[in-house]
Design goal:
The complex is a heterodimer of chains A (334) and B (284).
Chain A lengths: L1 H17 L1 H20 L9 E5 L4 H8 L3 E5 L2 H10 L3 E6 L5 E4 L6 H15 L20 H32 L2 H5 L5 H26 L7 H25 L3 H7 L4 H13 L12 H13 L5 H29 L2
Parallel strand pairs in A: 1-2, 1-3
Antiparallel strand pairs in A: 3-4
Helix pairs in contact in A: 1-8, 2-6, 2-8, 6-8, 6-9, 6-10, 6-11, 6-12, 8-9, 9-10, 9-12, 9-13, 11-12, 12-13
Chain B lengths: L1 E8 L9 E8 L4 E5 L6 H9 L6 E6 L2 E2 L11 E4 L11 H10 L8 H7 L15 H11 L7 E5 L7 H16 L3 E6 L2 H7 L2 E6 L2 E6 L1 H8 L3 E8 L2 E8 L3 H13 L1 E7 L4 H9 L5
Parallel strand pairs in B: 3-8, 3-9, 6-7, 7-8
Antiparallel strand pairs in B: 1-2, 1-4, 4-5, 9-10, 11-12, 11-13
Helix pairs in contact in B: 2-4
Classes of the chains: A mainly alpha (334), B alpha/beta (284).
Chain lengths: 334, 284
Amino acid sequence: MIRKIFLIFKRDLKVSVRNFITLYIIVVPIIFAVIINVFSPGINDTTVEIVLIEGENVEQGEYFEQFAKVEFLNDLDEMEERVKKRDNIIGVAPDGNNEYFILSQGNEPTYVVDYVKNLVTFDHYDISVEDSQAEIVDYGRDISPLKRLMVNVATIFTSVLGGMIIALNIVEEKTDNTISAINLSPVSRLGFIAGKSLIGVFVPVVGTFLMLFITGFRDINYFHAFLMVVTSCIISIMVGFIEGINNDDVMNAAGNMKMLFLPLFGSIAGAELLADKWQPLFYWVPFYWTYKGNNLVLSNSGSLIDIMKYSGIVLVISMIVFIVLAPRIRKGLE
Amino acid sequence: MIKVKNLYHSYSNDENYAVDDVSFEISKGEIFGFLGPSGAGKSTTQNILTGLLQLQKGEVEVAGYDVKHIKNKMFNKIGMSFEQSNVYNKMSGLENLEFYGKLFDVDTRNPMELIKMVGLDGKENIKAGKYSKGMKHRLTFARSMINNPELWFLDEPTTGLDPAIASNIKDIIKEENNKGVTIFLTTHNMYIADELCDRVAFIVDGKIRLIDSPKELKLKYGEKLVEVEYLREGKPIKESYSTVVEEEKNQLIKVIKENNIQTMHTKEATLEEIFIKVTGRGLV
């Protein structure tokens, strides 16, 4: 059984490499990686953003401006609204008695919040760069948050590409009428589906690993990355089968796979831009959880339990979709 | 090798049967022809036997396996040459056979040997998509032999082939049959059925009208006459003599002895004529 599954996978890979469209799809992750490297800013181009109340503490503002991009607003209400609007901007507001509190939305990276905390502390104790006798604290972040976001999105996008190749291979089987020949060989329907699915895992896994390596994410936990990629491509594989079964034309099949991009980009935009109260709207989208899990993987800040939690949620949603789609896939391959 | 009892199949899941109460048996080593016009139910029956269509009603046993509960192992024993060629166009002829052969759990034939057998040697590394229709058909035919099937389903094996290649294909079928392979031949070509089959079944509108050997059918439905053409005093004479009436038999012997015989034919009926006589239908 395993031998036959790999045999079908090897055939699909061989034929995919010979076809321009599928070959292009296979190399897209590498193209993504190169584009991300060219266009994403380096760590030194990235600035931590802080929002302060205008005129409340002029010296503090000047001090912070040495180390971050500072925005001044009129009062606490405006500051709250501003913090809610965007991620990664931290408010520093007076709490009376010459004390300050940090105002954050909650989904900012820990190191950004830590950075602002340190600045407040250093300012409080009048510590300047010249006074410092401490060694430089390195948070180990040598990749910019924007680059991480781009790689995260590209990784999820790559998982959809695997499904696209499956759709094209199923269309090939249909137009060549070869499914009937396979059905008359001692390969079970399950074996055939598993063999066809393998390329939908292989392309995203290899593509993602190459992309991570090229874009500089070399110190992350690759097992965690593997878990997230494998679970995220299950949905794409199933949609790939359905599109392959429903279409007789390669271009239509590839085109219809684009319907996955709406929940993909929608959930990422929602996770990044919307406030906490709107987040449950995206809980049903597996890409939402993949995005969250990938964030932990790429920032190297998630434990195995965290990653298993996110990949587990993706797996459960995928299984529900599988229960719905499996009969249609089986019937379509008869 | 095949046992079919009271087989029914309806595509609309009602009483409108495409295959209607079909029963027959095929013994090991036999070539069985399933003959009928398009839409008669030949392919439906064959697809049920091979498991491509689900068995709805009736009992079917193929190569010792109950088709109601098909096991994948059964496919190690059977081969199928489809009427419509179905090979991977993006793979070469050789790659097609190599790939398909590896899917089986039994010893398979050398793909190059099969390529040579069907006259595709020299073209084995060309992608099947560039093959002509006839070449693809031969590749499909060759692929059906890759697992040394005990039971071989052939669906219109010579359709679309030129006479020389068709003759080669018929020789291969005879050769395989001589090795003990049981053959289920679906065709509307009465000549190939006549030449190859031990027994034939006539199927029309989903019902089997008759099962017998071509020889018996000809004896039963043909005229028992010999037509002789000879020269008498330089003039061509054409006469018919009965092969069963004693007096005419003696006359025939006399004619043969005394004259210069030009042509002599038995007036046996063709399978096509018998089919029309029995079913009242043509074969197209």
